[in-house]
Design brief:
Structural class: alpha+beta
Shape: globular
Helix content: 25-40%
Strand content: 15-25%
Protein name: FAD-binding domain-containing protein
Number of strands: 20
Number of helices: 19
InterPro entries: BBE (IPR012951), FAD-bd_PCMH (IPR016166), FAD-bd_PCMH-like_sf (IPR036318), FAD-bd_PCMH_sub2 (IPR016169), FAD-linked_Oxidoreductases_BP (IPR050432), Oxid_FAD_bind_N (IPR006094)
Pfam families: BBE, FAD_binding_4
Signal peptide: 1-21
GO molecular function: FAD binding; oxidoreductase activity
Radius of gyration: 25 Å
Length: 635
């Protein structure tokens, strides 16, 4: 955990007094940039020439003209080496010149190939810690442009290039760092990207020729036993921008409460997860994770440090709760409502043929249909599942994690009895016997279900996609049969299918930017493209991407369009989803765009498929799928 001593407590001189009147700030947030600080930099000969590039915005910055691009390495207006050195002085040596994480696997400008180091990198590349601990690496290198893949079999002919990685990154340890970089990037017309863990299915935390804010070391967690704000009085946590899901769960267990979060332990909590809405195993009780956010500390595009809450910058607060990450400002911390301690029953098993027992294809699908039919009952009971259906060389199987908060073993058995009876009647064998357990609190149940799952990362062999299926598909026999037939066809064709039963609705009656599709959802599923090699040609990736968008997702898009409450979860989606505005943001998009333009007139905060991103393009050539390996330009 990095905590910066309190050097001063001040804000941009044009602003009102610091937000500590609303909530106390972390020490690293108390270290801020002010006009007095800028005067000090002006008096320092090492940084004097830089001060104009570090000045605050005035709220009226004009966007760069149509057709113009962000400054790019090699351009005349790209900062000189002396400017970068001066910036590093202002940051107290926090600036990092990017070396691609897999560079030791190549002979390159970063040195000769180091076989031992390369072996270590390759051995860990599908595990999340190696990417989290690197200032620029991301979990899915296909969006970086695959310019320096982790491979042990490279030769002198193979090249390693920076590609879509930022040119520089800043190891952020104070709000002052964020303000300096926001101002510098805006004034110097440089692309800015924000990274915590790099866990993004769309590559939003990387970008060629950019300057990156690496937020991962802002790890402070504070329990607030008596937080009070408009509409809420009770327990809460103040969480630094670098905290991960599993770290939040551990803090909640320590203090005898529950917190909503995702199933992957490596997800960054305060950034993309909360700001993208955040589906959660506890959604059946308390809705989406964004519904529990009470306050954000934010650096805006003008470099100002503000509090966003129901009573301060309320429109910005509305947008940050579900309107997408990396879009409206840089969040340094969030205050999130804690919920009562809850017990959980977990059931895990795999259904499918064994060496001693087989099941007919129809029998398997009958059992699966019984489960699919039960979704409304299961979500009404507050439960959640994560399951995978496999069709491997014609052999069908179902891998299940059934997560039942608020249920004893007895109530879980009563709830699921019709399905387990159907499994028995159809003679579907347990390829992996059921392992069921009751837990008095969330953390041990989570650790049993997902907390030790490594969820392979670092791969560049497929493209993801998803669909949110609304409740209306379960309300009539006609709708249900159409949905079931679509599912069966999907599985029969051997396509990947990972699903959830969940219905977050809005039990906290939150007014925020969470997509209207989530309020209607009965089920959420994730699929993927046809697999391709890491070294696949652009043409092969393009074919796979086209197949995903048209053949795999197309029928589901038609079955569950936004017009009936369907959509797509913006955090785990196909990067080239054709109707992303309506599918990712639902009915909220136009209001979000107004807020985006109010707080970011120059378009500083670009992220692919983010609100307002259609005004920009990444000129990456033809790579088969949208990547961040190219300069960013106005359309």
């Amino acid at each position: 955990m990095i905590v910066i001593p309190i050097a001063f407590i001040a804000v941009h001189a044009a602003l009102a007094p610091i937000a500590s009147a609303i909530t106390s700030l972390f020490p690293y947030e108390q270290s801020q940039l002010t006009n007095d600080t800028l005067n000090g930099l002006k008096d320092d000969p090492r940084t004097a020439s830089l001060v104009d590039l570090l000045s605050f915005g005035d709220g009226a910055t004009e966007p760069i003209p149509s057709g113009s691009c962000k400054s790019f390495p090699g351009d005349e207006d790209w900062p000189s080496e002396s400017t970068w050195k001066a910036l590093n002085v202002s940051l107290k040596s926090a600036l990092i010149y990017t070396t691609p994480i897999a560079a030791p696997c190549y002979d390159s400008q970063w040195g000769k190939k180091d076989v031992a180091k390369c072996n270590e990198i390759v051995g860990n590349f599908t595990k999340w810690p190696i990417h989290q601990s690197d200032p620029t690496s991301i979990y899915w290198p296909v969006y970086q442009g695959r310019t320096c893949l982790a491979r042990i079999d490279t030769t002198e002919a193979d090249s390693c290039m920076r590609g879509g990685y930022p040119e520089y990154a800043v190891n952020v340890s104070s709000a002052r760092h964020v303000q300096l970089i926001v101002n510098f990037a805006r004034n110097a017309n440089i692309r800015l990207v924000i990274k915590n863990t790099g866990h993004c299915y769309l590559g939003k935390s990387t970008g060629a020729g950019s300057l990156g804010l690496w937020m991962h070391n802002l790890k402070t967690v504070e329990f607030l036993p008596q937080y009070e704000s408009d509409g809420y009085r009770g327990k809460a946590f103040k969480l630094g921008a670098g905290v991960t899901v599993v770290e939040v769960y551990r803090a909640a267990e320590e203090h005898g409460v529950s917190m909503k979060g995702g199933i992957s332990p490596s997800v960054g909590y305060v950034g993309g997860y909360l700001q993208g809405g955040g589906h959660t195993p506890l959604s059946g009780y308390w809705g989406m994770a964004a519904d529990s956010v009470l306050e954000y500390q934010v650096v805006t595009a003008d470099g100002d440090f503000v509090t966003a809450s129901e009573t301060s910058h309320a429109d910005l607060f509305w947008a940050l709760r579900g309107g997408g990450g990396g879009t409206y400002g840089v969040v340094t911390s969030a205050i999130v409502r804690a919920h009562p301690k809850i017990d959980v029953t977990v059931s895990e098993f795999t259904l499918g043929n064994t060496t001693n027992q087989t099941v007919s294809r129809e029998g398997f699908f009958t059992g699966l249909r019984t489960y699919w039919e039960s979704f409304p009952d299961y979500t009404d009971a507050g439960t959640y599942s994560w399951f995978l259906v496999f069709n491997t060389n014609g052999q069908l199987s179902l891998k299940m994690t059934f997560f039942a908060p608020g249920h004893t073993m007895e109530s879980f058995r009563n709830l699921t009895k019709p399905w387990f009876d159907a499994i028995k009647i159809e003679g579907i064998p347990f390829a992996v016997p059921e392992k069921a357990g009751y837990y008095e609190s969330f953390l041990p149940a989570y650790m049993e279900a997902w907390g030790r799952n490594e969820f392979p990362m670092g791969t560049a062999t497929s493209l993801p996609g998803n669909r949110l299926l609304p409740k209306s598909l379960w309300t009539s026999a006609e709708n249900f049969n159409a949905t079931w037939n679509m599912l069966r066809t999907h599985i029969e064709k051997g396509r990947h299918f990972g699903g959830y039963h969940q219905a977050p609705k809005n039990p906290l009656k939150a007014d925020n930017a969470v997509s209207s599709a989530w309020r209607n959802t009965q089920s959420f599923f994730i699929t993927r493209s046809i697999l391709f090699l890491e070294t696949a040609t652009t043409n092969d990736i393009g074919k796979s991407n086209k197949n995903l968008l048209e053949e795999i997702l197309g029928p589901w898009r038609k079955l569950a369009p936004a017009s009936i409450g369907g959509g797509s979860y913006l955090n785990e989606a196909a990067v080239d989803e054709p109707k992303w505005k309506e599918d990712f943001y639902g009915t909220q998009y136009e209001r979000l765009l107004e807020i985006k333009k109010k707080y970011d007139q120059s378009g500083l905060f670009y992220a692919t498929t983010a609100v307002g991103s259609d005004e920009w393009e990444v000129r990456d050539g033809d790579q088969g799928v949208s990547t961040q390996n190219g300069r960013l330009c106005r359309v």
